[in-house]
Structure formats: structure tokens, C-alpha cells
Design a protein that fits this description.
Helices cover 37% and strands 20% of the residues. It is α+β, with helices and mostly antiparallel strands.
Length: 623
Amino acid sequence: MRRSARRTTKKKLPKLVAAFLVLLVTAVLVPLTGAWFSKEPPVGLTDQQRGNDPESVLDISRRSTIYDRGYRELAVSFMMKSLYARPLEIEDIDGTAAFVGERLGLDPVELGRRLKSERSFVWLGRRLPEERARTVLQKDLAGIYAIEESQRFYPARRSGAHVVGFVEENNGLAGVELNFDHILRRGSGGAAGGGHLQLTLDLRIQELLAEGLDGLMAKTGAVTGTGIVMNYKTGAVLAMVAFPDYDPNSYWDAGQNGRLNRAVNGGIELGGFSSLFGLAAAREMAGGDDNRDRLSSLKIELLLESRAKEARSGEWFEERGAELLSPEFKGWRQAATAGGEQVALLAELGLFGKSGIDLPETVAGSQETGRTTPLNLLSAFAVLVNGGRGITPYVGEAVVDPSSGRRTSIARPEPQGKLIGERTSRGIVGLLAEASRSGPEAIFLESMRPAGRLSEAREGAEESVEEPESRFRTVLIGFTPGQDGVALLVALDGAVVEADKKTLMRNLGEDVIGRMAALAIEQVDPPSPEVMAAGEKRIFETWLGSQAYDHLVAAAVNTDPEVKRPEVMPDLHGLSLRKGLRVLQTFGVKVTVVGSGRIVEQEPAAGAVFDGGECRLSLRSDV
């Protein structure tokens, strides 16, 4: 009997193991496939969403609009509805198919066939305009549901992208979308006091700078490029460009390199500008009340005045150590040295700390290496020419109430006060104007550092060896000394430059800075709420017109009920794997996954007609 019992136990053992494996697989797969069979809506869908009450849908707040200083839209959100059906809950399938098909432009016969299938749910339309979805929902049909989704659109695309940033699932992840997330979230899920955000950026100045910098990079072969335009009297940033750049509508395509804001978080050498700050420190030292300092100051003034006159007729660049400096720098090293006072001034001007700008800022300069950020350099230069007043750069101008149009200026830290004397600042501006090779109305300084083997190339040029390209890290700063107070910085890395003549950088600066100054002083009247709403509607229509209708509505492509209707592949770019699989779950496809992270490639492509089979998703972790 005992032997028989043991035999029976051994016979049952494989069955027990098999049962255990079934339970294990079920525990793992059921959560992943529940949306296929469950009567509950898939993740992200609500269970009471019939009717035409917008409050009955998901609690997704409509994100506020971002404007430039002229109230041109930089980011707009639309509330869209996606409709789906639960076939088992529909009482009259043929009648429902006829009604929905007429309202959405679907073939009622094909739609009826799909609703009679064994699927747990069927998409009727994705991201439909509110008016179109309402024509279906107002009937209050059994088994027809809606979810509300927020669609963020950036009509300026790449223009200002590093400042504006981007969102994912209504959460700001970069730029002002991140820094002002608490303001931009409004509506049912937003913070109290939210509203539209007006920036200091001027889209016209932004595009002037971007177009010019892009042309410079093409002509010089530069690897990266940075540009900033600032009101140097207030710190308001009027334009900010960094190349490579990206389109926030598809930010995942750029990767981390394209999304890096080099203007704020990139490195740059002080180069010849170190001597300019040394001059300021020396003038501050020589500006005391005793006779010895007055005499020293007079000597410096006379020497610099003579050097300035020489600069206007000299060569375009002077080699000074590792730097090539434009004529506006001539003679400063010999005329003024400040030693420890210069080091102290550089620290006080904030060259080696964070600028305090209202954008994500992760990088600061280093006094040991003499490197800073482009924004820090331009901000410190602004102090030298604005009368000595400390500034903090900023891009957030005001919050605009969407219902009244009332503007509320964004609170900023108090100005830092005088960092250098007004007399010192006036002296530097006068000196630069005297030495300027571009005239007194727009003054430029250029500093270039060889990025390759420039010195060896020059030595080898005397022989019959072909001289390699001379690549430089270049920095140009210019400003208008008039009432408008516009300063411009342009920096290139790895640019091919002919250093014995006027540079393309200076040509660009002379061409655009006057136009930028004129645009910067234009006054703009705040629009009414009706005008703002009309602008949003116009942007929505632009966005809607750019979408293929097949992406919005699952339109039937043949009417034969015996033939399976091909599907239109959705756009999965930028989604996580989990969300991508959720979108594909109604297609009945086999999915092959390569890599990890977010979806960067898909096969078949978005919009392609797809009749089952396999789908390949490529993922990357740096998006």
C-alpha cells in the first residue's frame, strides 16, 4: 500500500508542477493582458465618461499658453477627446454603428462588423476635436465612452526650444515648462493663481539670431554654436539659441546633445575678455581720492587713448599668447594690470557661479580653468557697460490671467546694486567707442582661441607643406551704447576662420544688432482674452491641418465585411514601452522590442496601412 501511494504521488508530481507553472504564468501575464479581456477600461481610461459633460472625463488640466513678449504663441495646449466602444455593452449595434459612422465619417457596415467582434473594446477615434466628439457623446449611447487628453503643441518649433522646453504627460521636463510648471498648470488639476506665461523672448529677434547663427555654422564648419541677445540694462533675455537644437514637438529625436542649452550650461573660455575685466579692476583701483591714485588714473587714460587710436588703423587681429584679439583689445595688457583686484572682481561679477536665470541651470564656471558659461560672460560684460549695475538674467516676464487678460509681473530678486563705479563704466564705453572698427553705434570685440594646431600650421606654412584648416573657438560680443541697451554674444566651436581679415562673425553682428535694437524697444499692448482665444483657435487649426485624418479617425478603407480592414499604424515615437504596447494592444500584432528606454523607431512607420503581422520597436535610453 505504501509503495502504491508513493507511485501515485510520483504520477501526480508532473501535474502539480504544470499546475504551478500555469498559476505563475497567469500571475505574470494577466496584469499585462487584462485590458484585452476585462470589462474595465484600459489603464488611463475612466469608467463613467458618457455624456457631454467635460468634467466627467479624466482630471487632466489644460496647460497654459506660453507667449513671447509680443504675445506670439510659443506653446499651446488643446483638449482632445478619444472615443472608444465596449461592444458587449451596446444594445443596438447596427443603430449605434450607423449613428457613430455618420458623425465620424466611418463606414457603418465595417464599424458594425468590428463592434460584433469578440474584442473587449474598439477605438472609434483618437484625439478628436471637441466639436466632432460632442456630436457622438450628446446621444448618450450605451457602450460608448470618451477619454480626454491634453495635446501640447509648439507652433514656433525649433525657435526658442531651449528656453521653452517640453512636456510629457502634462509635466514640464525642460526650459520654462519645467521652471514655471506651477504657473502653467491650471484648470481642474492646476495650482491656484495659474495663468498664461509671457516671456521676455522676442520671436522676431530669436529668428534673426537663429538664422544668422545657422548660416555661420554652415559657412565655417563649426561643430556647435551659441547666441544670446540681452537687454544689458535689465537682464531681460530677448533671444537664446544653441546648436545643435531640437523640435519640442518631437524632443525624443534629438537626444541629450540636441537638448543641451549651451547658452546656460555650456563652457566657454574668458580669453581676451579677461583683460577687459582686468582693465575695469585697474581703473577701479586708480579711481581713489588721493593724489597718487589720481595721477595713476591719468596715466592710464592717456595711454589707453593713444592705443585706441592705433587700434582703428591696425590689423584685424593681434596674437596675444594663445589668443587672437580684435583691435578693440589693443594695449590693455600693457596699460593696466590689477592682480588680486581682478580676481576679486571676476568673482563679484558672478563669472564662476550660477547666473540665477529662471531656467534649469546645472553648470557653473571655474576660476582655476578660466572657463565660464556664455550667459555668465555676457551678464558680466553687461555690468561693465551699463553703468556698473549688477543684473540677474531672466526670461519670465509676466503671468496673464486667461479670463481678464490682466498682467502680473513675475517677482524677481532685487538688483545687486553697483558692482563697479559709474565713472569706470563710462570710461570703458568711451574707450571701446574710440577703438571700435565697426563705428560708435554698435561696438564689437572678438576673441579667438585655436581649437587645432594653429601655431604649428603657421610654422609649416614656410615650407611646401599644405597648411591644415585653422579651427577656432570664437567669441564675439557686441552692444549698442544708446538708450536701447542691446548686447549680443555669438560663440562658435571648431570654426574655420581666416584670421587676417574681417570675420563672418563680425559681419553678422553688424548686420543684425541694429535691427534687433529697433525691435527690442517696440511697445506691445496686451491683447484681450477674446484675441488670445482666437489666436489659440488659429494655432489649433494649423495643428489640425498638419495631421493626417487617418491618425485622428480609424477610417475604413474597404466595405467588404468578409475582408479584414487594414489598420493605420499610430505614431509611437517618444512613448515608453509600456505605453506603446498599450496603444498596440487592439491591433493583435506580435511585437519585437530592441533596446531599452523610449521608442525612437517603429516598423511599420506611423500612418502606414498595417494588416496584422509583426511590429518592431527600437528603444533608446538617452531620450
